[in-house]
Amino acid sequence: MAQTGLFLGFVLGVALLALTVFLTGRGWRQYSVTSVPTPTGGGSSGNAGESERERGSGTAARRWADDPTVLSLVFLLAALGFGAVAVLFVGGSTIPEGVSDAAGPVLVAGTLTVVVTYLFYGTYHAARGRGLERSQAALLGSWVLGLLFVVGVALRLVGLL
Q1: Cβ of 132: how many Cβ atoms within 10 Å?
Q2: CA dihedral 41, 42, 44, 47 (to 10 degrees)
Q3: What is the tens place of the pLDDT at every residue in 26-81?
Q4: Residue 124 CB burial class (10 angstroms; 0-12, 13-18, ≥19)
Q5: How far is CA 82 from the centre of its chain?
Q6: Is residue 125 within 8 Å of residue 116, measured between CB atoms?
Q7: Which of 16, 61, 81, 139 has a CA positioned 20 to 30 A from the CA of residue 132?
Q8: What is the 3-state secondary structure (H, E, C) of 76-89?
Q9: What is the DSSP letter of 161?
């Protein structure tokens, strides 16, 4: 019974991957959010107050960041990496004990890195979309990370961490 469940999970994962490749490869995306005109006070593009030269719309990094196929592949690689480390962490007797012991802290560090990056970039991008300058947006992102640190210290002092 467990083998059937594993097989079905594998088949559904492959089907989801094929669907993702199919949808991102169709060329349905005809515009970029940064090319939509925004009001003078900023907007949802996150590029308020920047000139065309500062935006660097022709750089390879910008094109890759706007490409849904690249983003899907990066997400897939990150998910596979987390999955591989999780398998090493919960692996049976065939995996050396040193590798299994090191996988736990790697999972915790990876998860914390993802959460901290998500919070900082989300705050930064939202602030830029509201028309704030880069330095002001970085200040807000750093403020959120500082608040997260204070909450962590408070939880540690109370004994919940």
Answers
A1: 19
A2: 170
A3: 665 565 556 545 555 544 454 555 555 555 556 888 888 778 888 888 888 988 99
A4: buried
A5: 13
A6: no
A7: 61
A8: HHHHHHHHHHHHHH
A9: -
For residue 37, the 8-state DSSP code is: -
Judged on CB neighbours under 10 Å (0-12, 13-18, 19+), 36 is exposed
The Cβ-side half-sphere exposure at 84, using a 13 Å CA radius, reads 6
Residue 71 has which token pair?
């983003």
Which two structure tokens, joined as six digits, stand for 15? Answer: 């089907």
Say which residue the tokens 């899907």 belong to. 72
Residue with tokens 């200040």: 139
> With the CA atoms of 48, 51, 53 and 54 taken in that order, what torsion angle do they form, in degrees rounded to the nearest 10?
-40
